[in-house]
Structure formats: C-alpha cells, structure tokens
Design a protein that fits this description.
CATH topology of the largest domain: Neurolysin, domain 3
Largest sheet: 5 strands, mixed
Strand content: 5-15%
Number of strands: 9
Number of domains: 4
Strand order of the largest sheet: 3-4-5-9-6
Helix content: 55-70%
Radius of gyration: 25 Å
Length: 675
C-alpha cells in the first residue's frame, strides 16, 4: 500500500519514499476527475449536500496526499524527492486550472447561489460558494477557449518557475561554506556560536570551525565577529545567493526566473482584464485599491523615516567614537547595533538567551494560550515524525482532542531557511465524521550545543510565538467547511493578524515568569534586564519599520508598474532612495533571495505584514486595557477571530472583537513612535 494514500490516518513519514509520490498524485487526480465527471453529468438539481460536499471531500483527499510531500520537500530535501515533487507541479496546476475553468461546475455553483434555498445555508457554506464564484472568474471562466489555454500554460509555467526559484535559494545557501582553523579570526564570537561552527565542521569531517549561510551561523558572525573582513565576506555571500554576483556568481542564478515570473504574472492579470498584477492580487484582499495600499505604506514612511535616520546617525557616531570605525558599512550594522545595545542598555542577545531555554519558552507559550483560550496542550511521543528532532503535540478542550501539531525547531542541512506554519490536515465535517486540524510549525533555530539545551534569542522566541499564532488560527477554527476553515478563505492581508498578535506577549512583564528561566538556575529573566530590552527594542524600531516598508513598496511597485524590460533593481534602488536609510553596495542581490514574493504567496502582498500589524497591535491594545490575561477578552478573540476562519470578512471579524474599525495609534505606540 502506498503510504501517501493512507489518508484516514496521519502520514507515516518514515515510510514515505520519493517513488511513492507520482503514483499517489496520479491516482488521486484520476479519482477526483471521476468524481467531478459523475457530479456534473448526473446531478440535475445541485445542492450543498449532493454537489459541493463531495467536491470539498475530493479537495480534502488531494490536500491530504500532497501536504506531506510538499512539507518533506521543504524539510528533508533530496535530489530524488525534489525530482518527484517538481514532476507533480504541472499535474496539479493543470488539475486546478481545469477545475477553475469547468463551465458545468461554475453553472452548478451559480444555480445553488441563485436558488431560494441559498439563504437557508449556514454563513460558512454561503461564503464557500461566493468565494468559489469569485475564484472561477479569477481562473478565467469567462475567457475564450484559446485564452483559457494560455491561462493554463501560464499557471503551469509559474508553478515550475517559483519552485525552481526556491530550490535555487536552498541550493545556493547549502553550497557556500568557509573553513577556519585559526581561532583568533573568531574573536568576539560567543562560545555557543563557536560550538555550532565546530559542530558544522565535524559533520563534514573537517578540522576547526565551519562558517555556513544557515541563519544561526550567519546571524552570529554578523552580530559578534570582530573581524570586519569576515563579516564582509559573509554578508556578500548571503546577500548574493542565487544571483549573478558574489562567490558563486552565475550558479543557481535566479535572474532569468525572476524576469519570466514577472512577465507571466503581468500577462495573466491582463488576460483577466486587470491593468496589472497588483490589481489582480487585491481581488482577494481587504485593501480595495493600489492607491489605498501605497498611501498606507507612504504614510508609515512619513511617520518613521526621521526616527530611522536619527537611529542610524546614533549608530554611526557610536561606531566612530567607541569602536574607532571611520565608516559604518551594511556588514557592520548588526555588529555595531549589538555593541551599542550592550554599551547603552547593558543588554546583549547572548546574555538574554541564557534565560530562554527552549523547554521554558514552550511551557510558557503553551501556558499563555491555555489560559486565554481554555485549552490544554500535551505531547504525544508515539506519533511517526520525519526527523528525530521533531515533536508532536495535541490540543485538548475539556479533555477532548480538538487539534494536533508537529514542531520542527532547528536549522539543519537540506531544510529550507526561515520559519513557517503550514497545513497538514484541515478541519472538515463530512458524512464520515469530523476531521480535526493538524499543523506543521517549522523554524530554523540554533540547536543544542556542548551539552547546553537549545537557547533562543529574544528574536527567535518572537518568531516562535508568531508561527504558533498562525498555527492557532488553523487549529482552533470551529468552521466545518474545508474552503473557509482555519486560514482558508482569509483575506491574505489579514492572515498575519493572529501571528503578529501573539508576539505581543513576548514583550510583557507580566508574562515573563511564564516563559523565561535561566538554563542553569531556573531564575526568570531579571526585570532590569527586561526593561533594558524594551528600551533597546524601541531604539531600532524606526530602522526595522523602514526596512519592511522598503520591501513592501518594492514588491507592490514592480507588480503595479510592470512593463516589458522592467529593471527590477532600478525599481528597488528608486524605492531605497525614497525609503531606506542604509543603501547597500552595488552587488547586493537581495531580490534574488526574496522567496516571499518570487516563490511564496506574497506577490503584490508583502504590504500585508504592515497592514495586519495595525490590526494586531490594535487588537492587543484591548488586552492592555482589560488585562493581558483577561479570560473573557481571550474568549472574545477566540470566538470573533480564531474560530471564524474565512467564514466572515476579516474586517467584520475585527470589528466584532474590537467594537470599531482599526486604528494605527497602537502600532505607533508599540513601536515607540507615538509622538
């Protein structure tokens, strides 16, 4: 039996092999096509029960088979799995386009929407149908046959190109390393960072220390290495990955992929009668127009740029006076900032992380959500996982399991960088019963070294809370319809609301004792150290803000203003001139690794992070007003937002919680920019 087809239970990851992938996908696609043919040919009076429910079950079956394949490709990548994965992308793209352009399906959905019985359907069933009708239009249901064919070709090409883009970034990251045998070159680096590099060298049967582009090592070198040449070398290697520049120039070069992706997106949007891809992207978002998005972003630039410029001037002056550095280059900034924080606020990430061993952080994070949302989280060690470092947990409510999740926390070879939440199983009620939601939560933290437990920087802890917020949105849903359950059907520019919302507890004095405890003594983080962290956080909030705004405006502009021969870096440089306070060197190829927009779901949507941060800050302000552990406020957030999935418009969900439309004031206050 093909283990991928055993969808009545959770995936048996240890049994899944690359040779299982293509046969399993082929079988499910064949069976699903048969279901669609049966429905469209035999059902004369379509309804939710006899038509849409079977389609939702077919979609669920495909999700259940493809989800572990896609996940393994990200966390246990290999040549054979990559080949199988990429072979399936055109098949899936073709199938999805077929669905979106199936006139009989479209007409059946229309008939159900227009029938008198539509109003007797539940709100989430109605939303499923209206979303589907919108998506039929966005899939080209109204196009002439030759244009539908072109749409299908574009979708298949984009599926392959975006996958190739991500694979190039992963391959380029893995390919670069630099061995050091003279320990004096590692001056300034912490013992834990050196231990990690020593571990990396031993894994390759090498002497000394091995520098790699995995984020924990990159971050350590950029923050602590006294050797400026070492920082510059790492910076250039990291910022030129998968490009025409840097130490591996021309290998895994994403340049042609980026140009082709942009051209195809523009062509796709014009096929569907949108002026550009930015307008096409907004068809499924809260923001109503490109002008609304850009005025929102530019307003934040106006409010934050002078703050960022002052912060940079402070760092440059400090570098000169205290570190004898005549210039402060992009590869110096993290190092100078860390030295400045230590000198000014007497706090360093390295000291702080000793108070955040992973077990204390997990216990505290679970404790917070258990209190707020009346749930219990327990580990289940019997579940089959893909790597020995992976843990599996169950969420219970009144002693009944309501959701489950996998936790894969540490960086390793053949694992995609970054942090993300993804769906393993989506909640759905079908004639077979209730299917509970299951999530993958993936990070790339520094693993345990030299007998110490894994210790998280405060930034890493915030990342963990962020991804867990996404996970709760997926897992605590009470919506039974697959298409609007959990994060499905949620406006993309609101999907970051629960994740950014949960980050706020990382900055609350009242929560400290719950998730901090020195790895040797168990003592919670001292309050004076915490207060210094708060001061240090607000110090760099302007620079962090303009950096995110730079990415967001760049992303939106290249999709809004696309034309044949668009020079991506000319546009990026124009945005930097207006927004950035630090201009990187000419050979910087940031966009070549910008997977969020070239390989993820954020094309013409990276602004969503800031858009949702307004929502999340304002939502958290209600807890500040009523108590950060106020159970009734927690229950209101649960019932208004987390449980609703995509069954209601995001603005309706927000107003049901806050009692009014969102305000930007809380975001500015939390960023130390209220004045």
């Amino acid at each position: 039996m093909n283990p991928l087809l055993a969808i009545e239970s959770l995936p048996e990851f240890s049994l899944i092999k690359p040779e299982h992938v293509i046969p399993a996908i082929d079988q499910v696609l064949t069976e699903n096509r048969e279901v669609i043919q049966l429905l469209t040919q035999n059902i004369k009076a379509p309804s939710w029960d006899n038509f849409i429910q079977p389609l939702e079950q077919a979609a669920n079956k495909l999700n259940r088979v493809w989800s572990p394949v896609s996940h393994l490709n990200s966390v246990m990548n290999s040549d054979s799995l990559k080949e199988a994965y990429q072979s399936c992308l055109p098949k899936l793209s073709e199938y999805n386009t077929e669905l979106g352009q199936n006139k009989q399906l479209f007409e059946a959905y229309q008939a159900i929407e227009q029938a008198d019985s539509f109003t007797s359907l539940s709100e989430s069933q109605q939303k499923t149908i209206t979303n589907a009708l919108r998506d039929f239009k966005l899939a080209g249901i109204d196009l002439a046959p030759e244009k539908q064919t072109r749409y299908k070709e574009i979708k298949q090409q984009l599926s392959k190109l975006t996958s190739d883009f991500q694979q190039n970034v992963m391959d380029a990251t893995l390919a670069w390393s630099y061995a050091i045998e003279d320990e004096s070159r590692l001056s300034g680096l912490t013992d834990s960072a050196k231990a990690l590099m020593s571990q990396a060298a031993k894994a390759k049967s090498q002497e000394g220390w091995l520098l790699k582009l995995d984020f924990p090592i990159y971050f350590a070198v950029m923050s602590y290495a006294d050797d400026q040449d070492l920082r510059k070398m790492m910076y250039e290697a990291y910022q030129t990955r998968a490009s025409d520049q840097g130490p591996n120039a021309g290998e895994w070069d994403n340049t042609p992929l980026m140009n082709d992706i942009m051209a195809l997106r523009h062509e796709l949007s014009q096929l569907l009668s949108f002026a550009n891809y930015a307008e096409y992207s907004l068809a499924t978002k809260m923001a109503s127009s490109p002008d609304e998005v850009l005025s929102f972003l530019n307003d934040l630039v106006d409010k934050s740029k002078s703050v960022a410029e002052n912060e940079l001037q402070t760092l440059v002056a400090f570098a000169k006076s205290d570190l004898n550095m005549e210039t402060c280059n992009p590869w110096d900034l993290m190092y100078v900032a860390e030295k400045y924080k230590k000198a000014t606020f007497d706090v360093s990430q390295e000291e702080v992380k000793e108070y955040f061993p992973i077990q204390a952080v997990l216990k505290g994070m679970f404790g917070i959500v258990e209190k707020l949302f009346d749930i219990q989280i327990t580990e289940n060690k019997a579940q089959n996982v893909w790597h020995e470092e992976v843990h599996f947990f169950e969420i219970k409510q009144k002693n009944t399991v309501i959701a489950q999740f996998y936790l894969d926390l540490y960086a390793r070879d053949f694992k995609r960088g970054g942090a993300w939440m993804d769906e393993c199983v989506v909640r759905q009620l079908s004639p077979e019963g209730l299917q509970l939601p299951v999530a993958y939560l993936t990070c790339n933290f520094t693993p345990a070294v030299e007998g110490k437990p894994a210790l998280l920087t405060h930034d890493e802890m915030t990342t963990l809370f962020h991804e867990f917020g996404h996970g709760l949105h997926h897992m605590l849903t009470q919506i039974d319809e697959l298409s609007v359950s959990g994060i499905n059907g949620v406006s993309w520019d609101a999907v970051e609301l629960p994740s950014q919302f949960l980050e706020n507890w990382c900055w609350q004095e009242e929560a400290l004792a719950l998730f901090s405890g020195h790895y040797e003594t168990g003592e919670p983080l001292p309050l004076d150290m915490f207060n210094k962290m708060i001061a240090a956080k607000n110090f760099q909030s302007g620079m962090q803000m303009v950096r995110q705004l730079e990415f967001a405006i760049f992303d939106f502009n290249i999709h809004l203003k696309y034309h044949e021969g668009l020079d991506i870096y000319a546009e990026l440089n124009a945005v930097r001139k207006r927004v950035a306070v630090i201009i990187p060197p000419e050979n910087n190829r940031f966009a070549h690794g910008f997977s969020h927009i070239f390989a993820g779901g954020y094309a013409a949507g990276y602004y969503s992070y800031k858009w949702a941060e307004v929502l999340s800050s304002d939502a958290f302000a209600k807890f500040e007003e009523e108590g950060i552990f106020n159970v009734s406020t927690g229950q209101l957030f649960l019932t208004s937002i987390l449980q609703q999935g995509g069954s209601k418009d995001a603005m309706t969900c927000f107003k049901n919680f806050r009692g009014r439309a969102p305000s930007i004031d809380a975001l500015l206050r939390h960023s130390g920019m209220a004045a």
